Amino acid sequence: MIKLVKNLNNNGLTAIEVLVCFSIVVVITMSMFKVVNNQKDKQLMESYKNTIMTYKNTLTKIIEDDIRAGGGIKSVNSNTESSYSGAIEGLKYSINYTLKDNSTRQIDIYQNANCDAEFSCSSSSCTPESCDSTNRIEFKKNGTLEEKLIIPDIYNLKFNNTQIKKLNSDTYLKIYIGFNHPDLGNRYSALDLIEPINASYF
Amino acid sequence: MRNLNNRGFALVETLIVSAFVMGIFSLLYTNFYPLIGEYEKRETYDSIDSVYKTDLWKRFITKTKTTITSSSGDLTGDFNFIKVFNASQNGKNEFCNITKNPQECSKLWDTLNVNTIILSSYTITTLKSKIKDINTTEGMKEYISYLPKYETNTQKYRGRIIVEYLERIDNERDNGSEEEKFYNIYKYATLGVDLYD
C-alpha cells in the first residue's frame, strides 16, 4: 500500500492547467448568467401577460354571460364619455343598456392615463392634489354595483384607446378596451366585445 | 493495482465525447426551440373573445336553420362535409346565401371582421386528413391541424363551424409608418352547431 501511494503522481496541477480551467469556468459562468438573466426577464413579461389575460377573461365572461342570461341586448340607452375629476387626464366611459328580460345594466370604465403629483396652492400653503390612478371597471345590475374590477397599480397596466360604439346602423354594440403596458405596448391584448342589439337570432 | 492505466484520456477520446455531448445538446435545442414559437402562436387559438363571437354565429345558424345540401357544398358523404368560405373569394356572399337571412348574415360577417368560415361535420377526422388540399389560409390550416378530431359527440351536434377573425391592433409604441403603427392578427375559434340538410 505504501508503495502504491509512493507511485501516485503527486505533482499537483501546473499553473497553466489551473489558469485554463479557471478561464473555462469563467466563460461558462458568464454565458450562463446571460441566459438566466434573459429567462428572468421573459418570466416577468409572461407574468404581465398572464395578469392581462386573467383580467380580460374575467371581464369578458362576466359581461358576456350576463348578456346571454338576459336574452341579449334589447336597447342601448346611453353612451357617454367625460373627464374624470379624481385623476389628471382621466376619462370615464359609461354605457347603459337594457336586456331582453327588461333588466338594466351599466358599465363604467375609468381610464386614468396619468397621475403625476400636482399641487393645489392657496395663499398660505401648497398641498398635493388627491389623485386616483386606478384603472377600473364597475359593473352595475339594475343600479346596484355587482362587480368592481380594479387593476392594481403594481402591474403598471393602463386602459388605452377605449371605444364604445354602435356599429352597422346601431345594430351592434362594440366595447373595446386596449390594455397598455410600458413593456408590452398595445401589442398584447385588448377586450373586444361585439354584441347585437335587439337581434332576431339571439 | 499496479496495472491501472493512469495516463488519462487521449485527445481523440475527449474530442469524440465532446462532439457527442454537443450533438445531444443541439438535438435538444432544435426540438425545444420551435415549441416556444408554437406556444406564442396558440395564444390566438380559442381566445375568449373569438369563442363568444363564434357563439353569435352558432346562434345565427341555429335560429335561421341554415341548410347544407349537396348543391351548396363539397359533400363528402352523409354528414361528412367540408365547405370553405374565404372572404377573398366571395365567401361572404356564398355563405350568406345558404342562410335564411342573408342581409343579417352579411352584417354579422362585416361587424365581426370574418376572414374565413369553414362548415364541416362535427367530427373533423376527414377535414384534418384533407387539410393540405383545402383552399384556405395557412393560418387556418395550422389551426385545424392543432385541433383534436372531436370524435366524441355527446351533444349530438350535426356540424361544426370554424372561424378565422381578422383583428387590427393599434401599436402605440411605434411612431413609424402606417404598417408599423397597425398590424393584423388572426384569431381562431370553433364550436359545434346544428346544421340542417
Describe this structure in words.
The complex is a heterodimer of chains A (202) and B (197). Chain A is α+β, with helices and mostly antiparallel strands and 202 residues long. Chain A has one domain (30-196). In chain A, 30% of the residues lie in helices and 43% in strands. Chain A has helices spanning 2-7, 15-69; strands spanning 73-83, 88-99, 104-114, 119-121, 126-128, 135-141, 144-151, 158-167, 172-181, 185-196. In chain A, the strands form 3 sheets. A 5-stranded antiparallel β-sheet of chain A has the order 1-2-3-6-7, with helices on one face. A 3-stranded antiparallel β-sheet of chain A has the order 8-9-10, with helices on one face. In chain A, strands 4-5 form a two-stranded antiparallel sheet. Chain A is elongated. Chain B has 197 residues and is an alpha+beta fold. Chain B contains 7 helices and 5 strands. Chain B has helices at residues 11-41, 48-63, 91-98, 102-111, 125-129, 138-146, 178-181; strands at 74-75, 81-86, 114-121, 159-170, 182-193. Chain B has a 5-stranded antiparallel β-sheet with strand order 1-2-3-4-5, with helices on both faces. In chain B, strand 1 (74-75) and strand 2 form a beta hairpin. The interface between A and B is medium-sized, with 31 and 28 residues.
Please outline the helices and strands.
The complex is a heterodimer of chains A (202) and B (197).
Chain A: H1 2-7, H2 15-69, E1 73-83, E2 88-99, E3 104-114, E4 119-121, E5 126-128, E6 135-141, E7 144-151, E8 158-167, E9 172-181, E10 185-196
Antiparallel strand pairs in A: 1-2, 2-3, 3-6, 4-5, 6-7, 8-9, 9-10
Chain B: H1 11-41, H2 48-63, E1 74-75, E2 81-86, H3 91-98, H4 102-111, E3 114-121, H5 125-129, H6 138-146, E4 159-170, H7 178-181, E5 182-193
Antiparallel strand pairs in B: 1-2, 2-3, 3-4, 4-5
